[in-house]
Amino acid sequence: MPRLRRSRTRNVLLVGVILAVAGAALVWFRSEPAAAQVSTRDAVIDVQDGPNRNQANQLDATMYVPEQTPAPAILLAHGFGGSKDSVQQEARELAERGFTVLAYSARGFGRSTGEIALNSPDYEVADAGQLIDWLARQPEVELDGQNDPKLGVTGASYGGALSLLLAGTDERVDAIAPMITYNDLEQALVPNAGTTAELPNTPAAGAFADNGVFKQSWAGVFFSQGLGGASVGSPRSEAPEADGTTDDESGSAGGSDTASPPGPAPGPSPPAATEQLGPCGRFLPEICAAYTELATTGEASEQTKQLLRSRSPAAVTENIDIPTLLVQGEQDTLFGLDQADATARQITEAGGTVRTVWYAGGHDGGAPGPSLRGKVADWFTARLVDERPAEGGFEYDVEGALRAQGSPSIRTVTAPEYPGLTGSDATSLQTVPLRGQEQAVVNPPGGNPASISSIPGLNSLVTSSSRIADQLAVDLPGQSAQFTSAELDNQLLVTGSAQVRLRVAAADQNSAADGAVLFAKLYDVGSNGTRVLPGSAVAPIRIDELPADGSPVDVTVTLPGIVRPVESGQRLQLSVTTTDQAYANSANPASYRISLADDQSIQVPTVRGETSSGQSPTGALIGIGVTLGIGALAAVLGVLRRRARGKDVAERTDLPLVIENLSKAYPGGLTAVDQLSFSVEPGQVLGLLGPNGAGKTTTLRMLMGLISPTEGTIRVFGHLAGPGAPVLSRIGSFVEGAGFLPHLSGQANLELFWAGTGRPTEQAHFAEALEIAGLGDAVHRKVRTYSQGMRQRLAIAQAMLGLPDLLVLDEPTNGLDPPQIHQMREVLRQYASTGRTVVVSSHLLAEVEQTCSHVVVMHRGRLIAEGPVNEVTAGGGAATFRVDDTAAASAVLSRLDGVQDVVTEADQVHAELGDTSRAEAVRELVGEGVAVHQAGPRRRLEDAFLQLVGEETEG
Question: Which ranges are annotated Pro residues under compositional bias (predicted)?
């Protein structure tokens, strides 16, 4: 006993030291400041119209003014089809951060006058230059010089291109943050992914070859917006955002079960009834003519190509040498990752500093959410307020395969540089061999029926387990050639645009006449043969000429840029089709022979990095203190472990848990656990069931080594479990409050916890645990913002770190609402399906019955029943009969000897049969002319529990 007291004293002192360290760290904690006050001022700004400037147009604008002025200014542009109202949330957030923000409706949208010129330097860009003049005259704006405001420009999609074009033509712009936008409008709307030229060594380099294939679906959507009506330029603000949450319980990553098609908030005012709009709507005539040509012929003339190029940031990026934050979506069939890749290369070559961010959203996946918008604000603060030099870098989101309520889990990977920009850090390409012989494919007359890869507006919709678009991809037989890899030995994280060399030949002279239009896509094929088309993206290829003699032409194809973890055991499949519904297909019937070039492989880009925690400097200081405390605890537990280590037990090493004659008594005569014995088999979900005070939590605390038993043993995989036992490393637990630090993000809390275990980071399996727990991008938010349900899920994720062989959870559904409880059931079942074991303590009988395969019932510290749930509930003589005549059935059952408590309910009759068998009761019913549709036991786990507890009480 003296030795035990000294040990306890040391433990108490140790805990006191740790709490002191944590308490000192919490001195740094401060509440989030209240949102800054923002005032607004509407304005109608006159601008000279067009290159001749012989006419005035009016732009409808709102200025958002921060508390303290003068302040640096942000010019905020909206997406195509939107208006100043589409970006009011973004404007207010930037103003709260201390910027004077001018949001405006571009010409032809909202209440602004003028015609749409597609970001022409002579129109929209010139308009924006005049808005800078206007800002320079406002007293709320800080100046760098005469008529030169300290200025940042940002916007998404159409507005993102405007920020690039303005930066390339007006030297007064100091920093930009273009989002989900294009580099070359010709390549965005008429792309060609097949080339014979050498490719850049950046992760998402596109071929950008001439004479592409018209992207008719997206172009048609955009043209319709210029006719007046709802907007589609960037995902609507009230729809789920790709790095935010729609409520306290779900970290949304681009959708939910009820996600809407993409489109911004209702911004533009529809044309007035008196406004006469022709077939070109609000477009300039030359824009209308170019679209008409593309829509009717499927190809772009040189005049149309020049028009699109002149509206492209690529025309001016050689002039951009200012800090640039490039944000691009990984779910975007309109403006893919190759567009941002080209912009990053061009600005870097011009001397600008570029930081590139790929996020799990885009035109098909959701608007930039609060976290990402916060990064944009941070970028402008560093450049315009703190005037710190810009640093490059690269970060990308990895979307998990498992979904929680329609939202995937997300982890963010950071790298110090975007590979290939400096010429010395080229992208790593992994060679994956493909199998497949030469195959013949046919282009049907008119290009119809056509294969399906993506449908604008539907790509963002999700079910509870996947994106709708993943299930829509269809390659029609006879029109596609497939080349498939072997099963992968290890996970392959595709990070960008894969490359493949194709060999194409015409099957006859007629087929050679018009060259070939083909579409390449890369599938992720599961072990069961299920195919997923990541990003719903496809690479169109136009080969202008094919030899009439059937000789092949080799072409390098850059596949769409994606971020996709392809797991071990799965395969990559390259599919090459002759048609695609989203594009203008070749109308002439033709036949081709397609094979892989000599290397018979695909080159897959990978970018290594570290998972970011988003930890602030203050958080880092606190983290250091807590980590030291946890480290001290780990050191002391190591000493205790060596002293308490028992002999290894050779027998029953296959059993996750064996408890024998376990008891725990406290001074005063209280016995919390009394001679408890049971075992758990691998793969079971075992429910430890009992009322409050039954001894469940005490049992689990003894299992985890938090307290010592009075007598008895606990063996985990054959090894004695107790304080500091090495075998505890195979257990993940949530038994008592997790004690998360509220000022740190969820992920930072998990990383600190794992650091305290002293185990290698690569063994943590952070991504897998977060996928199973289903927190989504909310893991990057501070824990203080979490609801009780989210804290509970974070605790589950912590318990799952390292993917332990035995998972022990005490009341895991506390604080969860019914949908989340249902989700938790699936999480636990899925975890057990991997061969691991789960022990769940609960007083909720219905949850144990629906979640667990086996049950141990405790009452007053003692075991009163154990076994499979269906066996525990099957005892007794209660039965239910579904019949056609409940009155007649009730009369028949009431006449039988020993039958009691006959009750009718709808088309069912319930009865306690006593010694009468269910089969005998059915015979009697049928003999009396009662049709029995169904017969079964009535007893539920609740009935069994109440009976067992009642019997134990009486005994």
Answer: 261-271
Question: What domains can be seen in the chain, in order of their start residue?
Answer: 39-175 (3.40.50.1820), 185-421 (no CATH), 429-610 (2.60.120.260), 617-869 (3.40.50.300), 876-938 (3.30.70.100)
Give the DSSP letter string of 659-708. Answer: EEEEEEEETTTEEEEEEEEEEE-TT-EEEEE--TTSSHHHHHHHHTTSS-
Residue 315 DSSP symbol: G
Q: Judge contact between 415 and 187, C-beta under 8 A.
A: no
Q: Phi-psi category of 118—alpha, beta or left, where left has phi over 0 and alpha has psi -120 to 50?
A: left
Amino acid 580: pLDDT: 94
Neighbours of 39 (CB within 10 A): 12
Reported as a single tens digit per residue, the pLDDT across 775-831 is 777 888 898 888 777 888 888 888 888 888 898 888 777 766 666 677 777 777 777
Cis peptide leading into residue 449 (ω within 30°): yes
3-class secondary structure per residue, 24-63: HHHCCCCCCCCCCCCEEEEEEEEEECCCCCCCEEEEEEEE
Amino acid at residue number 389 = P
The neighbouring-strand residues paired with 354 are 324
Which residue in 461, 497, 456 sits closest to 581, CA to CA?
Answer: 456
Listed in order, strand segments (DSSP E) in 285-419 are: 324-329, 354-359, 393-404, 407-415
Give the H/E segment covering residue 206. none
Question: What is the CB neighbour count within 10 angstroms for residue 486?
Answer: 11
Cβ–Cβ < 8 Å for 219, 456: no
Surface-to-core class of residue 790, CB atoms within 10 Å of its CB (0-12 exposed, 13-18 middle, 19+ buried): buried
**AA identity, residue 87:** V
CA Rg value for the chain: 33
- From 51, 405, 59, select the one nearest 254 (Cα to Cα): 405
Q: How confident is the model at residue 23 (pLDDT cuts 50, 70, 90)?
A: very low
Q: Kindly tell me if the per-residue pLDDT of 732 is higher than 80.
A: yes
Whether the CA torsion 542, 544, 549, 553 is positive or negative: it is: negative
Residue 493 and residue 606 in contact, taking contact as beta carbons nearer than 8 Å: yes
What DSSP character marks residue 571?
E
**Among the listed residues 420, 748, 434, the one whose alpha carbon sits nearest the alpha carbon of residue 574:** 434
- Helical pair 818-833 and 788-800, crossing angle rounded to 10 deg: 10
Residue 12: Cβ-neighbour burial (10 angstroms; 0-12, 13-18, 19+): exposed
Strands 531-532, 516-525: pairing kind:
antiparallel
Tell the burial category of 862 from Cβ atoms under 10 Å away from its Cβ (0-12, 13-18, 19+). middle
pLDDT digits (tens, 9 = 90+) for 409-466: 688 899 989 999 886 677 889 999 999 999 999 999 999 889 888 777 555 554 434 4
Residue 50 has φ and ψ, to the nearest 5°, of: 75, 180
Segment among 133-147, 162-176, 460-474 with least mean pLDDT: 460-474
* Contact predicate 777/244, CB 8 Å: yes
Q: Which residues face 731 on adjacent strands?
A: 806
* Count of helix runs (H) and strand runs (E) in the chain: 23, 41
218-261: pLDDT as tens digits: 998 888 877 764 333 433 333 345 554 333 333 333 332 223 33
The backbone region for 705, taken as left when phi is positive above 0, alpha when psi lies in -120 to 50, beta otherwise, is: left
Under a CB-based contact definition with an 8 Å cutoff, are residues 680 and 853 in contact? Answer: no
Is residue 886 helix, strand or coil? helix
Q: Tell me 244's DSSP state.
A: S
Q: What distances in angstroms separate CA 924 from CA 140, 881, 896, 938, one per listed residue?
A: 91, 12, 9, 19
Q: What's the chain's average pLDDT? A: 81
d(CA 729, CA 724): 9
Which residue is it, tokens 């063996």?
A: 715
Is 670's pLDDT higher than 50?
yes
**Dist. CA 474–CA 897, nearest whole Å:** 64
For the ranges 66-75, 382-391, 679-688, which has the lowest average pLDDT? 679-688
